Amino acid sequence: MSNVYERLRERLDMFPQGFPKTESGVELEILQHLFSPDEAEIMLHLKPFPPESVVAIAERAGKDKAGLGETLYGMSKRGLIMRYTAPDNELYYALIPWVVGIWELQLNNLTHENIKLYEKYFEEGMVPSQRNRTLGGLRVIPVEKEIEGSTEIQPYEKVSQIIESHTRFAVADCICRKEAKMLGQGCDKLLEACMSFGASADFYIENRIGREISKEEAKKILLKAEEDGLIHCSTNSAGNKVFICNCCGCCCKSMANLTKYGNLQAVVKSNYYATKDEETCTDCGTCVERCQVSAIRTENDHTVIDEERCIGCGLCAFTCPTGSITMVRKSPEEASPIFPGGKALLQAMGKETGKVYPFE
Description:
Blueprint: H1 2-12, H2 26-34, H3 37-43, E1 52-53, H4 54-61, H5 65-77, E2 82-85, E3 91-94, H6 98-102, H7 112-130, E4 138-141, H8 159-164, E5 169-173, H9 175-182, E6 192-197, H10 198-206, E7 211-213, H11 215-228, E8 231-235, E9 243-247, H12 253-259, E10 272-276, H13 286-290, E11 296-299, E12 302-305, H14 315-318, E13 325-329, H15 342-353
Antiparallel strand pairs: 1-3, 2-3, 4-8, 5-6, 5-7, 6-9, 8-9, 10-13, 11-12
């Protein structure tokens, strides 16, 4: 039985994001907790892209179509695989990575037992595997109000543009802050802050992981997130974005890689950085409290911005009482690369770690 789980681990590790092996074997405990042996075996026959019909999967796996269809649907309802509904109402399924993927979709299934497993795996598996990478999958989106004067601003840099490009929206609790709260830790920042759009919103709504919201409510949630000091993040791609995370520095795994473990490349920085007017700055310290990644500190009663740590979120400028902090656009040479779509991003991430995407 353990062999099928090891094979599943190896398959999930084929994703550019990885699902690395640990000395403790906690990842196998997680898989055994989530999948029955039969379900784990079925996972070995699924592909990440493109999604496939039950008929195609059944033929490859040598299984009965009716029984397999029922199993796949049940697995998708538990957030273990992705499910898409075609215009003719035929269901298609695809393999998804551990992150962003299976883990986030366990939002409604959290217990103290599995949270401890997830936290242990994050520290023993995911953090070490990310340490030497130079290309992250998440990119910071700056507070729009603070970059409005920029003539070179791109659509993918404006949350309003991302919202306007979609017609269906969902919001769910942030799994990072929810886990932290269940462990008696974390912060009191906005909890219902994980937003999804389009087909991703369909999945969240149909599986009751999140609730459907209007375009106007989506805009209000983003504003509330900015007021709470949360960082907008989405995929490091210029194409269709299907989610926006609103992250804090204390709970969120992507930010923890940077703040707690010192991996400055864990999150792709925006094309902006913060700078301040020394003459008008009163060194009130508001920006020090607002910064989620410790890029602003107090030295000899003066606030200092560490440009190397600054991720360009704009939260400091958003609430600077004297307007002394502004966001400056980086030169083309300084700017982080962005990819045309999610597939190109994953291919680039895979190239860095010797993995091919999509895989068979």
